[in-house]
Structures are given as C-alpha cells and as structure tokens.
Amino acid sequence: MRYKTLAAAVLIASGLSSGAAHASTITVTWDPAASPNGPGLSSTVNSITQNNQVISDFSMTVINPTTGAFTDTGYLPITEFQLNGAHVAGGGISSNYSLYYQYTATGNFYTSSGAAGFNPNGIDTATFSGLTYSLVGANGSAAFSFPNPTSNPTVSGIGSPITLATGVLDPAGGSTGSVASGLPSAQVYATFSPVNSESGFFIAPPVSGYVGLSLDSAFTNTSSVVKFTASGGDYYLEVNGGGGDANFAVPEPNSLIVLGSGLLCLGMILRRANKIGQH
Q1: Is 267 exposed, middle or buried (0-12, 13-18, 19+ CB in 10 A)?
Q2: Bridge-partner residues for 177, per DSSP?
Q3: How much is the average pLDDT of 163-185?
C-alpha cells in the first residue's frame, strides 16, 4: 500500500484471496471539469471513460516489532487512465489538476511462526483492522515528499483540495498483506461512497449507481522505492514512488447483501512489479 498500500502502502499488494466475491471489471466515466465544488478546471478537460487507473504510491508504515501492530499512512495519486489496456487522455491530469487517494490503515503483523510480531528479514503476514480514505481532487500538480525518514509523506503543489468520495475497510473482510525479504504487499477491500453533490463528476455510473461496486487496486514495489528505518523501538517502512493499478468491479450477488447499500470495495493487490520500475 504503499507499504501502499499495506493503499494501498503497506498495502502494496499481493494477489491474495478475498472474503468477498468479485466479478469482472466495469467501465466508468468521470468528468473532473463538471465537479460543482472543484477542482475549477477549464472547459478543455475531457470526460474520462476508463476501466483501469495507473496509481503511484507514497506511504509510511510504522510497525512495532514486538506486538506487530502497524499504522500505514499515505497517498495514491492517479497518474494515468486506461481503457482496455490503452491510454486515455486525462485532459491534463498531474499537470492541470491532480486526483489521489489519501488513506490511513491499521492492523497487525505475524511472523512465520504465527506469533504476533515483525521480522524485517523474514516472511511476515498481516491482517487489517481499519482503513479510512478519501478520493481527492485539486488544481495543480501534486508532489509528494517525506520530511524525514520517520515522517508521513506530505503533499504540495496544489490548491483547495476537494473530497470526491470516501470509504472504510470492507466489513465483508478478506484484507490481508505480507512483507517478504523487506518488500511489502497486501490486498485490502474497502467501501466506496461518492459525495452526493458530485453527481457531475461521477457520470457513469451516476452517484446513485455506485451501490455494490468494488474498486480493486493492485500495487507493486521494488527495493529501489522501499526503505526501512529503525527508530525508537519501531520500524518505519517508506514507499517512495511505488505503483500499481486500480479498477472497478461488480461483486457477486451474495457480496452485495453483505456490503449493503451504498458500499463499494477498495482492494489493493500487488501484482505487476514492472509497473514500479517505471516510477
């Protein structure tokens, strides 16, 4: 996650199975210029029809090696939209305006023996106990940095950020992660609730049509973007520029019953290591 995604930072994902069933991905259309609250973009920005988002990852995960408890905080900026594998012009995304997921996740690590704890040189598994996030839009080109090796990332280069959607950890479960030889990965599912006033932004499906959708995010990290720092008895796992993909999918009918009205799943799954090397 980044760990992005343990977003998504430690979130950084792995192709682990989920407690909620998901079907094939769907196509959605967003229109950043039509947001009634902002960003205040020019009329030259086109609506974006997509079924995949390329996402980068900037995150800090703080891990207690004794108890295994962790807190993962970060940003997942959208850097490209794709439709059936082909690039979709974003009308100036990352230059005229920025879209990113801002999140905080919590959970616990377990060592290879199954005991609560964390060994940075071993193979550790993780479960998530909480996640909150916002999909944010803003004018300008967002830049992410780490003030120091033990600080959460910060964002600059933007003005008047607007919350477009929010979500929390999916109550259906299935969110897990791991760190193997210092490289984090995870799969996290969350609800997705567009802001009601943003019906101009979420064109298809409209805001009312997002009931029961699932957002699957896949992130990958390599050693070049991951750094461990030991301080004050904790480990600090920084992911600076990791990346992956996000897409929407419709859950199976039984998952809709579990999720309930207005929920959308956010999944973070680590898959394509080649993506990270491009960031």
Answers
A1: buried
A2: 126, 186
A3: 82
